[in-house]
Amino acid sequence: MGNKEKDLLKKAIGYFHIFSGAHSDRFVFHDYISINNNVFLFKEIAKAEGIQKEEYGLGLVALVLSDLGIADATDKEIDNTTLVNNFIEVNEINEDEAKEIFSYIEFFKTNRQPKNLVEEVLRDTKYIHLGLPDALEKLELLRVEEEKTINKRYTELEWLEKCKLYFITHSFDSNYANRKFGVTRSRNYFELEKRIDKLRSEDHKEKKGHDSHADNLTDKEGEDMFKLAFRNSVNLIAVADRKAGMLIQINTLLAGVVFTFGVNKFEVNPFYIVPTATVLVGSALTVFFGVLASKPSKRSFYEDAGVDKENFFFGSFDKLDPAFRHVSWENYSTNINKLLKGNKKFVFEELIKESYQVRKVLSKKFSYLSIAYKIFFAGLLLGILGFLALLIYEYNYHEIPASGVVSETPF
Fold first, then answer.
1. For tag attachment on the chain, is the N or C end more exposed, with fewer CB atoms within 10 Å?
2. Contact call for residues 75 and 19 (beta carbons, < 8 A)
3. How far apart are the first and last CA of the chain?
4. How many Å apart are CA 123 and CA 107, to the nearest integer?
5. Cβ of 340: how many Cβ atoms within 10 Å?
6. Which pLDDT score is estimated for 209?
7. Are 296 and 319 in contact (CB under 8 A)?
8. Partners of 70 in the β-ladder
9. Would the CA dihedral through 84, 85, 90, 95 be positive or negative?
10. Longest dimension (CA), the chain
């Protein structure tokens, strides 16, 4: 893959990032994270299959662009063909390259046999999520995406049967993909069949009482809801920590640069202490709130809510648990066995407590982040304006007048 193709791939990923950010409420499966994972996995499979980088440049670009929006959408804002055409026009891609990109996108839409090894790897990457450990959870995101974009509602059984057909019609072609991801793909398929059989059995038993229980969530739906909620919480906490770390790094560097600049200017004009102090104070406060946003939380939420301490530590990875080091194995195993052998209502109560804890953590983190960003922008803006005002004043004051005599400095 030459420099031109590399540059085009970066632009395609950036274009996808902008689109997914603007439509993140609908496209929860085909998001920026998934497309980056696909690019990484494609390169891994291509390298294992001995494909040279020069062979797949535009094919990889087409792989990224093929996941934009949906095909043949009435809303041109999310129509794949319209979005791809816009990308081609903006980046002035020539006619031959555009035809090659569209030929690959058309290949992804059809189920024809790949013509060469590059197409095999491209197709494997397109459906590689079927061979990943979280395939069934990811397919639930695809269900949410489809329901929001094409306004169609699926029952649990309808969706699982559609996923089963999806598995059957999309197998892996390349040797490496079959070796590394084939076993997990088969496990996912068998798990899917078990869920279908279980739902069919439950539907058969509940036919008589269907009318009285139509609006109630099934146990499976409740489990999936908690899975999605906790996974999203994990992702959001990771985002908050990354943002806090970025603010800390930026403001640490900024404080050092501004302090050095201000010290050098004090001898010329002591008024430089004002914008310098403004930026330094803003940076210090930003770092302070950034640290607050990223530090672990104390285990005080249950006391605030007036509920008992949870019996099972369900993965609240972002809170302090100093007392756990004193817990013996006997007590721990007893409590876990008691929980797992308890009724479903008790288990769901524990999950709800944990969900409450995580939501509290998220609320506190993003509150501190919001304050940090406001202080950062305010301090930076005021400092820049102060420096500009002093520089402009110095320039005008030291300007040589018509008489040729330079004005004396007022300081």
1. C
2. no
3. 61
4. 9
5. 9
6. 54
7. yes
8. 79
9. positive
10. 104
CA angle, 140 then 143 then 147, to 5°: 150
Amino acid at 81: T
Query: Residue 55: which of 127, 128, 122, 103 has the closest Cα?
Result: 122
Cβ neighbours for 353, distance < 8 A, ≥ 6 positions apart: 302, 307, 310
Long-range contacts, stretch 87-92, CB < 8 angstroms, 24+ apart: 87/11, 87/12, 87/15, 91/8, 91/11
pLDDT tens for the chain, 411 residues: list them: 567 778 889 999 999 999 988 888 888 888 889 999 999 999 999 999 998 888 888 889 999 999 998 888 888 889 899 999 999 999 888 998 899 999 999 988 887 888 899 999 999 999 999 999 999 998 998 999 888 888 888 889 899 999 999 898 888 999 999 999 999 999 999 999 999 998 888 877 766 555 445 556 566 666 667 677 767 777 777 788 888 888 888 888 888 888 888 877 777 778 888 888 888 898 899 889 888 887 766 555 445 544 444 444 444 444 445 566 666 777 767 776 766 666 667 667 777 777 777 778 778 888 888 898 999 899 889 988 988 888 888 778 765 444 444 444 444
Q: How many CA atoms lie within 13 A of 127 on its CB side?
A: 21
The conformation of residue 68, written as its DSSP 8-state character, comes to: S
DSSP string for 34-62: HHHHHHHHHHHHHHHTT--GGGSHHHHHH
Q: Determine the pLDDT at residue 308.
A: 47
Distance (Å, rounded) from C-alpha 124 to C-alpha 185? Answer: 12
β-strand partners of 297: 319
Report the amino acid identity of residue 271. F
Q: Is 131:68 a contact under the CB 8 Å cutoff?
A: no
The answer to whether the CB of 84 falls within 8 A of the CB of 105 is yes
Percent helix, strand, coil in the chain (nearest 5)? 75, 0, 25
- How many Cβ atoms are within 10 Å of 123's Cβ, its own excluded? 24
Handedness of CA 212, 214, 215, 218 (dihedral sign): positive
Distance, in Å, from the CA atom of 399 to the CA atom of 407, rounded to the nearest integer, reads 8
- CA atoms within 13 A of residue 184's CA, in its CB half-sphere: 13
Residues for the chain: how many in total?
Answer: 411
Q: Which residue has the tokens 């087409």?
A: 62
CA distance 160 to 361: 34
Chain centre distance of CA 396: 50
